[in-house]
Amino acid sequence: MSFIDELNRAHREVVNGERKTVALRRHYDAGVEDVWEACTDPERLSRWFLPVTGNFRVGGTYQLKGNAGGEILRCEPPRLLKVTWLFGPNPGFSEVEVRLSAEDGGTLFELEHIAEMPAEMWSQYGPGATGVGWDLSLLGLGLHLSGGVQVDEETFHLTADGRSFITTSSQAWGEAFKAAGAPADQAAAAVAATAAFYAPEEESPA
Length: 206
What we know:
Layout lengths: L2 H6 L2 E6 L3 E9 L3 H9 L1 H7 L3 E3 L6 E4 L4 E8 L3 E5 L9 E10 L2 E10 L3 H7 L2 H19 L13 H20 L4 H15 L8
Antiparallel strand pairs: 1-2, 2-8, 3-4, 4-5, 5-6, 6-7, 7-8
Helix pairs in contact: 4-7, 5-6, 6-7
């Protein structure tokens, strides 16, 4: 499986309003029930995403290890999941919605993340700040559904494949940023900052 081919399967969209929206849409060659289970079963989720704990019902809460947590707002198996997506000590509004539908013998996966982002963060990184992370997650889901070997999230950015994936993902979000109205120079600066954040250059030994 080519990581870049996996990346190119996704369509990206940005809404640059008062609340920022990053959206991804892609096809998986797996049935809706299988994709739903991969996204909601705690044991399977830990294999391609992160360990999760919580009270898994509408109105209940969840917590991803070392990452976001929040409330389960809607859960309509096997089609729709909506949660608040809160991270850090003073999170603002942030919600993630995942929608699944049958398509061409497989599943159309749609993810939308709407959030209030600090102006300085959006100005520096643009949509890639969250978009690259979601691209990495969708790669993990694709590998899981196909039975492929999972990447090591802690070291993937140090590999040639990982750096290429992150750079290409950052560029893709830069294009989506421009399509949403961002000036070309702002989008280019955001691409460079995002790639450097997710895949920093290794320091040469002194």
